Amino acid sequence: MPDKYTAVWVSHSSISDWLRCPQAYFLQNVYRDPKNNHKIRITKPSLALGSAVHEVLEGISLLPKETRFNESLVDKFENAWNKVSGKRGGFADSESEYRYKLRGQEMLRRVMNHKDILSGPAVKIKEDLPHFWLSEEDNIILCGKIDWLEYLPEIDSVHIIDFKTGKSEEDPDSLQLPIYHLLVHNCQKRKAVKASYWYVESSDSLAEKVLPDLETSKEKVLAIARDIKMARQLKRFKCPEGDSCKFCQPLLNITKGFGELVGVDDYGSDIYILPQAEDKESVIL
Q1: I need a labelling partner for 46 at 20 to 30 A (CA). Which of 55, 104, 182, 280 fits?
Q2: pTM of the prediction?
Q3: How many CB atoms lie within 10 A of CB 265?
């Protein structure tokens, strides 16, 4: 019998880490600080912004559709922002934090101005972290959270909606939709018939995408997951550029003591910042 406690768990985030750099995958998903056994992660303003906006939108997905917009989302954003304010969000100064906060407020105003997009019934998967056995034989579990599942009552189906808070569009080769389609198919009973991105900083409408084929998606994801499992068994996580690259070097710097500890996240991971680390989005206004 497979055992979920010994299984290799993969997600869109961890698979993305792996595809960018196996050493970055190791430092993000396997490595633990020998001093306290905590995982590590680096925060920066763009991540803090995305986290706060997503927290607000995830919160209203739990509400009945009649009360979803009774309270201003910008007001709700204040509480979410307090969790990432200052160094905890990687902000170098109050001026740059203010600019990011304004961006978040504008995103949520856009959602309120186009609330009809989220005004229908929504399906909420009961598990805190939806997951299923991608392969019992390989002892691999696929997990992940979906931003929004719109319920389509006329056909008893669902529409996958993913909120995008960055300035760039999702890579067409991204495995996010294949993974989300697999999760929706295996973690609740209704068929997914649509999938869309909402670029809430720049667009008043959804960008509908073609739903990927389930079998093809499973084959792609499982092949990568097997590579990850093999690397974990062999303890072999080599950077494709040699010693380090732009993806793993910042994390290596943390392990060498160059970062500043600014908090602990909800999963018990230590949050670090790297002084003078460049966050490219911080100069795009």
Answers
A1: 182
A2: 0.93
A3: 15
